[in-house]
Amino acid sequence: MSSTPASSDSRHPMVAVVALCFGGLSAALTQTMVIPIQSELPELLRTSGSNAGWVITATLLAAAVSMPVAGRLADLYGKQRVLVVNSALLVVGSVVVALTSSLLPVLVGRALQGFAMGFIPVGISLMREFTPPHITGTAIAAMSATLGVGGAIGLPLAAWIADCHDWHLMFWVSAGLALLVMLSTIVLVPHIHDAQPGRFDVVGALGLAVGLVTFLVGVSKGNDWGWGSGRTWGAIVGGLLSLVAWGAYELRQEDPLVDLRTTARPQILLTNVAAVAIGFGMMAQSIVVPQLLELPSAIGYGLGQSILEAGLWMAPAGLMMMVFAPVSSTLMRRTGARRGSRSDGGTR
Q1: What are the backbone dihedrals phi and psi of residue 192, each rounded to the nearest 5 degrees, phi first?
Q2: What's the domain range around 176?
Q3: Quick check: is 114 in a domain?
Q4: What confidence tier does 2 reach under pLDDT thresholds 50, 70, 90?
Q5: I want to staple 29 with a disulfide (CB 3.0 to 4.6 A). Which of 16, 63, 154, 293 is the partner?
Q6: pTM
C-alpha cells in the first residue's frame, strides 16, 4: 500500500521532525528521572530496597515489551495514531505517579511511562515516510540521540526538583511535557495512510511479557529470597522456559509479533547483540554512577556529591549524543551505516 500524506505538514518535514524529537526526548526523560532519588525511594515509598528497585525495572521492562507491540500496532492502525496513544500513556502514567506515595500505584504509573517508549522506534519509522532523502539520516540520528539527551536533561532536572521541591513535582513536569507531545503529534505530525491489513498477535505479546517479568522477578528478588532458594531459580528458569515457548510459538505464526527468522539473520542478530551490549553499559552507568557519586566519601569509595551535583556530572554524556547526532548522519551518508559496506549500500 502506498504511503500518501494526508496533511500539508509533509511540505515542512522539519517541523514534524522537531515534534517527534521532542516526543522522544520527553519519553526518554521519564526513564532516568527517578535515578537521582533511587537511594531514597525505600523511605519515600515505605518499602524495601529490592521492591523500590522495581520503580526503575518496571519502566525498562514495559519499554522492552512496548517496542515490538508498538511497531506491530503501527503497521496495523497507522504510525501517527500509535504515537498519539503512546504520548497519552505517558500523560496518564505521569499523573498516576504524581498523585501517590505508595509502591503499587507508582509501579503502575512507571510501567505506563515505559510503554510510552514505543514512541521512539515508531517515530523513527514514520520519519522515513515523510522526510526527503537528504535529511532522513539526520532526522533519524537526531531522534535516536533523544535517548541520551533525555537522560542528560532528566538527571539534573530531577535532581534539582528533588533537592528543592517535593519529588512528586518531577512527575507533574513529565505530565505537562507529555501533554505537549500529544498535542504536537496530533497537530504537527503528518497523518499518513500507512495502515496495513493483518492481525495483532495477542498471545505473542502476553507470552513475551510473562517470560520477561517472570525472569526479572527471579533476578531482582534473588537477594531477598536467597540465591539458593527454589523460588528464585523457579522464577528464573520458568521465565527462560516461557521465552523459549514464546519463541517456538512465534515461529509457527503467519503474522507474528516478532519475526524471529528475520531477527536471526547474521546482519540483524549481530547488530541487535551490539545494541543490547551498548544499551546495557549505558543503563548500568546511569544507575550505578549516580549512587557512587552520592555515597559519603567516609566509606572509602563514595564521592560525597549532592543529588544535584551527581545529576550535573552525568549530563555531559547525554549532551555528547546530541552533538554527535549530525556526525553520525554524515558518516552514514558517506560510508554507509556499516563501515566498509559495499557501494550498493548493504549486504545481500
Answers
A1: -100, 135
A2: 8-197+306-335
A3: yes
A4: very low
A5: 154
A6: 0.78
